[in-house]
Each structure stands twice: as C-alpha cells, then as structure tokens.
Specification:
The chain is α+β, with helices and mostly antiparallel strands. It folds into two domains: 48 residues; 121 residues, Immunoglobulins (Immunoglobulin-like, Sandwich). The chain is 30% helix and 32% strand. It has two helices and eight strands; from the N terminus they run αββββαββββ. Strands 1-2-6-5 form a four-stranded antiparallel β-sheet. The chain has a four-stranded antiparallel β-sheet with strand order 4-3-7-8, with no helix packed on it. The longest helix has 47 residues.
C-alpha cells in the first residue's frame, strides 16, 4: 500500500510540475512568436521596397555656374529617385535625405515642412502620379540660400522602412 500511495503522490507532483512549467513557458512562446511574425512582416516589406537614384545635378548653366533656372530664388540640387520595388513607398515626407561634398561629413537635410525657415531643406515632385508607386520617379529638390562650391558630392536617400541608395555626382 505504501508503494501505491508513493506512486500516486509522485504522479500528482509530476502533473503539478508540468502545469507550472507550461504556465511559465507558454506566455514566453506566444510573445516570441508574435515578435517573430512582426520581424518577418517587416523584412518582407523591406525586401519588396527598393529605390534607385538615377541622377543628381545642381541648378547650373552650361558653363557650370549656378543659375536659378526655376526662378524660386534658391540654389537647388535636383535628385531623381525611381521606385524599383514591388510596393509603393508611403509617407514620402518622412524619407531621409543626406548630402556630403568636397570631403565633408554627411549633412541631414530636413523636409520643407519640418525645416521652418532654415536651409538646406528639401521638397519633392512626383511625375504623373499622386503616390510614389511602382516604377514612378520622384524628383527631390534640395534648396540652399547660397550656392554650393564646385566639387564632388554624394547624396543618400532613405525611405521610411530603412531601404536606401547613394549616388555620386559632381557640380
């Protein structure tokens, strides 16, 4: 009879331990599976999002001198960026634009709505569309209140999900 009682107590203790372990481990498993699903969705979006800077130039005349060709009163750098991904790029105003030139450090350039009265700042124009869809080209206009020196420049554009492209050009 002692053996039967001992066996029953051990089985009950084992069942209680299993329930305690399940109650401790199950919430961790479900939260980590949610995190993995979220990371997977984010990576899927990044894989489908791709941009390519196809050209960049300053507002220069044929002799390489700064000229206000669009009559807005500023000295502009134009950057054309094509959406080569398989999904539209949302929230263009939250893209990051950086410019470096003549062996200087990168300068983050704020979007015109967030720049206030400071320079430089950027704005954009979409060709033939209201959204930056697949195969559409976005023209970014970086405005300065004084001309930039001649030399080599590098521009980097990063869309809100972290996908970016860089382009070297000279003015």
């Amino acid at each position: 009879m002692d053996k039967v009682l001992s066996t029953i107590l051990l089985v009950v203790a084992a069942v209680v331990c299993v329930v305690l372990v399940i109650n401790a481990v199950y919430p961790a498993i479900t939260s980590s599976s949610g995190a993995l699903s979220s990371v997977s969705a984010s990576m899927n979006e990044r894989i489908k999002s791709q941009i390519k800077i196809i050209n960049a130039t300053g507002e220069l005349d044929k002799n390489g001198n700064w000229q206000d060709t669009n009559s807005n009163g500023y000295f502009d750098v134009f950057v054309w960026v094509k959406n080569i991904g398989t999904v539209p790029v949302d929230d263009i105003k939250h893209c990051d634009v950086f410019l470096a030139g003549n062996n200087t450090i990168w300068t983050w350039i704020p979007y015109v709505d967030y720049a206030g009265s400071t320079f430089p700042r950027w704005s954009y124009v979409l060709g033939n569309s209201t959204e930056w869809g697949i195969a559409n080209t976005l023209m970014i206009e970086i405005s300065y209140n004084s001309p930039l020196p001649s030399g080599l420049y590098n521009v980097k554009v990063m869309i809100p999900n972290g996908v970016s492209d860089e382009y070297d050009f000279s003015m």
